[in-house]
Design a protein that fits this description.
alpha+beta, binds cobalt (II) ion, Creatine Amidinohydrolase, binds 2-amino-4-trifluoromethylsulfanyl-butyric acid, 4 helices, 251 residues
Length: 251
């Protein structure tokens, strides 16, 4: 598949898909506290998405059994929500959510602390978010994809963190995953040249320890191989003539 460039009317629909997903994230953020289950978050997320007349794009994607990926502590991504997985004070939790609005996808992830967390955990969360912002400095027409990857990776590595290699960001549009793939670490090839109308899900996944990951027996949950904490931050981004427009973040 090749990289798609969206028209003005398609961008308007993606903007709405992004705006609604931001509301979902904001609502879910308010739920985060010790004592709730990861399934509670998924249930509320799915309810909200459907309340907007949208479809949860993760549900049944390659057999994924939920609407929101909820990944705790050493879980990197794709944690499966469970009634018995209760958030505890001091945990960090990543929520990855997406929806389809009139055929157009949005995708975004956030990582939160549960109650009081360690300074080390907070730093990992903050640096992962900053990685995204370092990356989108290069999400501009005329720049090449590798500039985003390198900016994210070098910032994370400057803290000694591990940059996850097995999963990457991606184009997004009428499918959740479109070309191009967007690694979060320096590339040998410069990658595609960005043009206005491209929409990209840029999503650093950063480990406090090394980059190696493993899959749990559920075939979904990705965990750090060394048991270290991992954080995730993602937005759906539009390439424009000027500054990138973050479709899933307005404030
Ligand atoms: N944000 C993730 C991604 O871009 C979520 C999809 S995983 C799913 O790949 F399988 F649960 F859908
Ligand atoms: Co994504």
């Amino acid at each position: 598949m090749s990289v798609t460039v969206k028209s003005a009317s398609e961008i308007a629909l993606m903007r709405e898909a992004g705006r609604l997903l931001e509301i979902v994230h904001d609502e879910l953020a308010n739920m985060i506290r010790p004592g709730i289950s990861t399934l509670d978050i998924d249930r509320e997320g799915e309810r909200l998405i459907r309340s907007f007349g949208c479809i949860p794009n993760f549900l049944n994607y390659n057999g994924y059994p939920a609407s929101i990926c909820v990944s705790v502590n050493d879980e990197v991504v794709h944690g499966i929500p469970k009634k018995k997985r209760i958030l505890q004070e001091g945990d960090i939790v990543s929520l990855d959510a997406g929806l389809i609005y009139k055929g157009w996808h949005s995708d975004a992830a956030r990582t939160y602390g549960v109650g009081r967390i360690s300074p080390e955990a907070q730093k990992l969360i903050d640096v992962t978010k900053e990685c995204f912002f370092r990356g989108i400095e290069f999400a501009r027409a005329g720049h090449h994809l590798h500039e985003i990857s390198a900016a994210i990776g070098s910032y994370a590595e400057s803290f000694g963190y591990g940059v996850v290699r097995d999963m990457v960001g991606h184009g997004i549009g009428t499918a959740l995953h479109e070309d191009p793939q967007i690694p979060n670490f320096a590339q040998k090839r410069r990658g595609i040249r960005l043009v206005p109308g491209m929409t990209l899900a840029i999503e650093p996944m950063i480990d406090a320890g090394t980059w190696e990951v493993e899959w749990l027996d559920d075939d979904w949950t990705v965990v750090t191989a060394d048991g270290s904490l991992s954080a995730h931050y993602e937005n759906t981004v539009l390439i424009t003539d000027g500054d990138p427009e973050i479709l899933t973040l307005s404030k």
